[in-house]
Structure formats: structure tokens, C-alpha cells
Design goal:
heterodimer, A: mainly alpha, 10 helices, B: mainly alpha, 4 helices, 48% helix, rod-shaped
């Protein structure tokens, strides 16, 4: 199979954000990378259905998201076992200034329902518009907006109250909410 | 005792400021992964597939697409990431 170099370059260019999206979805770097690999294979097998001139990145995100959803349905129990591995998987990046806050944040993120999490990531981190996110998730724009809102609220709740084991709730809230206060 | 049910203290609406702060952390966590770039695994995968056996045997040697770019060129593609910045 041969691809036009521009197609391959566009796929490569999308890999870093695909990985970030995949890690956000499944909370485990190894599984995320497998998911990205499967996405690229699927994309290349179906490259004829990609319309040149449209957004390659959005197309790949759609494939990855659908793969994740079908896998998630199959392995629901496993997916819920992500809290520890999620934080664990990102411990190797000492350049982060406020690592503790990040880890708490990631644990909270992993507890969001998948549809809220994906909506929040697509809009809040991947830089897609609500319309693009709706296309990727195959739902209405209003649905995306309400998922994003619920995700934010739920995250805030989790970070505020769900600290019974390891973190004092007040400490967690303050740490997370003040972390963005610079700049 | 541990409950999964959200216990909302007040109203459930986040202030604009809190939204911004949450968004900031989210973005930084995401960008942290993005900055890792393209692992070799994926560069190799795309190269292999592009170099696959089908094209070579089925087509003549003068197929213009056999002129593969060097692997290094692919790395540059990273800089062009995120063409669709700008949420509403």
C-alpha cells in the first residue's frame, strides 16, 4: 500500500494529539498506544474514504474514538481499573511543576463517565470546536455542550469531595483551583 | 464510607474563574503528552506500511511514489500539529 507523502505526514502530525486523547480516554499509556496503532492501521486501510482537503486530525480522532468505544463496551470492568495506572503512567515527567495536583486531577478525570470525558478533552484540550467535537462523537452540538458542562461540574465535585482516602478535600480543592491562577 | 454520588455543595455551577482554572490544568496535562512527539513505533509503522510489498511488486520501478522521503523529514511534520485551534 502506498500513500501520498502528504497523507502520511498529516497522519504523523496527528499522532501526538491522538496519543494525548487516547491516554485521556483509557488512562493507560500502553493501551493508548495500541489504540493509536490500531487507529492508524484502520485509517490506512480506509484511506479511500478520507476526503482530501478535510480535517485529517478530526477523521483520525473519530476512528480512535469509535475503536475505544467498542473496546470499552467489551472490557468495561477492566477500564474501570484505571485510577492507579493513570497517575502511574505519567509519573515519569519530572518537568511538571505541580505534579501532585496533576495526579489528583488525572485520577478525577478517569472517574468521569466516558462520554463526558471525551467531550471535555476534545473541546477543552484538543482544540476542537463544539461542532467538530459533535461530529467526532456523532451527536448534537447541544449534547456536547451539556456533556462538557457536566464534566466540569463533576470534576469540580470530585476534586472537592472525593478526597476521603488520600487527600484532604479542602487541600485538594485549593491546590487544583489555584494551580491555574498564574500567568 | 465512600460514595460515588456527587454531593454538590452549592448549585453545581462553576464560576467562570474555576472553569478557567480547570481548563488550564486540563490543557497542561494534555500538552504534556503532546510534547512527547511521535514515538518511533509510529514512525516505523507508517514507513513500513508505505513501503509495503504490494506496491513494489505490482507496479513498475518508475512509479513516482517509490521515491520515499527520508525518515527525518517525517519528524518535521510534528510542528504542523493542531491545524484547527480555536474552540468557541
Amino acid at each position: 500500500m502506498t500513500m501520498r507523502p502528504s497523507v502520511r505526514d498529516a497522519m504523523l502530525a496527528a499522532v501526538p494529539s491522538l496519543r494525548a486523547f487516547a491516554i485521556s480516554l483509557c488512562g493507560n499509556v500502553d493501551r493508548a498506544d495500541d489504540l493509536v496503532q490500531e487507529t492508524l492501521l484502520r485509517a490506512m486501510a480506509n484511506i479511500d474514504s478520507f476526503q482530501p482537503g478535510t480535517n485529517m486530525s478530526a477523521w483520525l480522532f473519530t476512528i480512535l474514538r469509535n475503536l475505544f468505544r467498542s473496546e470499552y463496551r467489551k472490557r468495561r470492568r477492566e477500564v474501570e481499573d484505571t485510577d492507579g495506572s493513570y497517575a502511574e503512567s505519567l509519573k515519569s515527567h519530572p518537568e511538571q511543576h505541580s505534579r501532585v495536583e496533576f495526579e489528583e486531577f488525572r485520577v478525577a478525570l478517569a472517574k468521569l463517565p466516558p462520554d463526558q470525558r471525551e467531550a471535555l478533552i476534545l473541546v477543552g484540550a484538543s482544540g476542537f470546536s463544539y461542532e467538530e467535537a459533535a461530529a467526532i462523537c456523532d451527536c448534537a452540538v447541544g449534547t456536547i455542550k451539556s456533556r462538557v458542562n457536566r464534566a466540569r461540574t463533576r470534576l469540580s465535585d470530585l476534586l472537592s469531595i472525593d478526597g476521603t482516602d488520600d487527600f484532604g478535600p479542602d487541600h485538594t480543592t485549593r491546590a487544583i483551583l489555584s494551580a491555574g491562577g498564574r500567568s | 464510607m465512600h460514595t460515588e454520588a456527587p454531593v454538590r455543595k452549592a448549585g453545581g455551577r462553576l464560576s467562570r474563574e474555576d472553569q478557567r482554572r480547570l481548563g488550564d490544568i486540563l490543557q497542561r496535562a494534555y500538552d504534556d503528552v503532546v510534547r512527547q512527539g511521535v514515538p518511533d513505533r509510529f514512525k516505523n509503522l507508517l514507513n513500513e506500511l508505505d513501503d509495503g510489498p504490494e506496491g513494489a511488486s505490482a507496479r513498475g520501478p518508475d512509479d513516482e511514489r517509490r521515491h520515499n522521503p527520508e525518515p527525518d523529514r517525517l519528524v518535521e511534520a510534528r510542528g504542523r500539529d493542531n491545524p484547527n485551534k480555536g474552540s468557541s
